Amino acid sequence: MPVWVREYSWRQSAAAVFLSLPLRGVRVTAANIFCTERYLKVSVPPFLFEANLYASIDETASTAKIGDGVVFFTLYKKEAAMWDSLTVAHVNKEELQYLRENAVLKAHEKAKEETEAKKVIKQEHRKYALEATMKLEEAERKRIEDLKEQERQKVTKDLELWRSQQEDVEKQKRVQKEGEQHKGVEQLKEKKKEKISKTRIPNEETSKTRLKPTKGSCSIFSENLKEEPLPAPRSAGTITINFTPRVFPTALRESRVAEEEEWLQKQAEARRTISADLSELEDLKEEERNPDWLKDKGNKMFATGDYLAAVNAYNLAVRLNNKLPVLYLNRAACHLKLRNLHKAIEDSSKALELLTPPVPDNENARVKAYVRRGTAFCQLELYAEGLQDYEAALKINPKNETIKEDAEKIRHIIQGTMQNS
Amino acid sequence: TVAGLERPQLVAHVQQPLSYTVFDCKWVPRSARLLCLGSAARGSGVLQLYELRGGRLALLQEVEKAKPLKCGTFGAAALQQRFLATGDFGGSLSVWNLEAPEIPVYSVKGHKEIINSIDGVGGLGIGEGAPEIVTGSRDGTVKVWDPRQKDTPVANMEPAQGESKRDCWTVAFGNAYNQEERVVCAGYDNGDIKLFDLKTMSLRWETNIKNGVCSLEFDRKDVNMNKLVATSLEGKFHVFDMRTQHPTKGFASVSEKAHKSTIWQVRHLPQNRDIFMTSGGAGNLHLWKYEYPAQRSKKDSEGAEMGVAGSVSLLQNVTLSTQPISSLDWSPDKKGLCVCGAFDQTVRVLIVTKLNKV
């Protein structure tokens, strides 16, 4: 329960009310004071003072002086009249409450209005500042432009002068030429053969003095040209060169370095994969655990025509390392020979999957995969799919004649069946 | 800022729209005339001669040729005659007298494919020795020609038998400080740079800068080789110090990334060999200055001499177009005057100011 402060003293003049409020032992700050037109409250725990003022005051002008143990209020009256008492007398509880709330509301509104006004002013200030800076920048820019323009004009005039001098030189040259022609054709030929080797062009001089070029060039033309014999044409020679090799034979701009790196990494990864369960393979010999050795074995058996054995070798190799595309590729070839067409398709597809990203390095492998799959499709009479694969192979390697011919054949077959149906 | 205005300014002087794609533009020495070479829409070659008059370019001459023209040089021309050597899309090298441009003075079908780049040395009173022309082609060969010898080149740099060829994109002469010495430097699309010594007919140095080499130029053709700038794709260029060749490490270099796109051309200012301009694929030009290091060479751990590269600083840059600026040439007669041709079918004449203060 707050302690109501009842002992206060006040006096008034026609325009103001002076209220002295004793609050001993507590520190009062501005936050503790709440004042509206007709309501004044000071709440400093544990003390509480409240006054519903007799008449309206101008709270913006009114002041509160916080002193040692006492707060001194100077409240300026809105209407200059003497108050009967400081507070409104005889108000009941409800009215009191109503008055309090009203006061609070009014304070709120006032606060709102103030912030609005502040905002507007701030906005205007900002606008003004912006315009000012813009003007400054414009001025600066214009100044630079003017300087540049001046520079330009100066330089243009300079150029014109130089150019007219060039014209004079040209005219002189022409006159000279005519003069020479009068001397005789032979002399002219002589002059033309002579090389102007020793005369130095005034290139290294600064071009500040505009008269210099005229003098210099005059001297070149009027000077008797020295009789420097030209050396004979060089004896012919050839230098053979080699170009810098690269891992991938494409210039940096053409290479898809990122993809190529990826491919190399994948290859390195694949080499290291050991996918099979070692326990099953304990009875295998050392060399039989090496996928490369198995691959070679498979290749040999394919070459001799023992396709089933080759498939077995590849199967085992795949169990050891299922990331090597070449194993699937070769197994697909075996299946083709064995007419296990679906298996051939499967293996070719797996090989193609492993041959990503597509880079020049794995071109050959991809061509083979497409051709094998295409063949399998055709043998299954799925000619459309087969043609697709052949065309993919051609896209990688457009120069291969066999692939071209086979693709043509397939096209004919497709057209033939379409005509028949 | 004031400090900014003390630097050289690249002032756009004249802009001339063309009705064809311009591949090369060159100043005619000793004149205010410039030459544009290119390809017309109907697939023929165009050669136009302009003169700078007032604030515009006046067309003096226009010649049409069978094949589009890719590059040209006056480098091997005598000052009196100023013959132009051109390389075209069909692989033919021709030398023209601009006063009678219908029939070439010299012509040879030197290459099987387009001649990408051409350079000349020994003419215009610059350098010593016989005038020679070098051409680099997409067929992977670099050939040196003497206009006095018909049909066969005096030097041929070709890939070895069985070697897959790489396009040669740029060639440059250098080191022509006396009658015998001369080198040719060639840049290829795989980033190879090869330096051929014509006196000993051998490969003197090679390196690889990873990205295709678009343009090569020695800072001066007619002195003991001093610096070589190589520009490449992906916005990089390298400046090699050519004074000291280490037996294994070759030449020291400093590289810089700029333009954020292909750097198409580099051209050194004829009047100051430490200033050069690069042109980029985004239509911009950058002006650079090279600063030498305190010591140009030092000894390595085994006592062999090796070069020390200096540093490059950007003086100024400007964006002129949205299309690549593929060709650039400084006027040898007026310091700061330059012409550039871009793929937006426009040729522009620029003046670079304050080069004396650099």
UniProtKB/TrEMBL annotation, chain A:
UniProt-annotated stretches for the region Disordered: 167-216
PROSITE patterns found in the cross-reference section: CS (PS51203), TPR (PS50005)
Renumbered ranges of TPR repeats: 367-400
Biased composition, class Basic and acidic residues, residue ranges: 167-208
Any one annotated GO CC term: neuron projection
GO MF term set: nuclear estrogen receptor binding
Compartments, record wording: Cell projection, Neuron projection; Dynein axonemal particle; Nucleus
Protein name: Dynein axonemal assembly factor 4
Naturally occurring in which organism (per UniProt): Penelope pileata
Record lineage: Eukaryota, Metazoa, Chordata, Craniata, Vertebrata
The gene coding this protein: Dnaaf4
Automatic annotation (TrEMBL), chain B:
Annotated SMART domains: WD40
Keyword hit for Cytoplasm: yes
UniProt superkingdom: Eukaryota
GO CC annotations on file: dynein axonemal particle
Entry-linked SUPFAM superfamilies: WD40 repeat-like
Primary localisation category: other
Subcellular location: Dynein axonemal particle
GO-annotated biological processes: apoptotic process
This protein's UniProt keywords: Apoptosis, Cytoplasm, Repeat, WD repeat
Gene3D superfamilies hit by this protein: YVTN repeat-like/Quinoprotein amine dehydrogenase (2.130.10.10)
Each WD repeat, start to end: 133-146
Function description: Key assembly factor specifically required for the stability of axonemal dynein heavy chains in cytoplasm.
Designated name of the protein: Dynein axonemal assembly factor 10
Organism: Penelope pileata
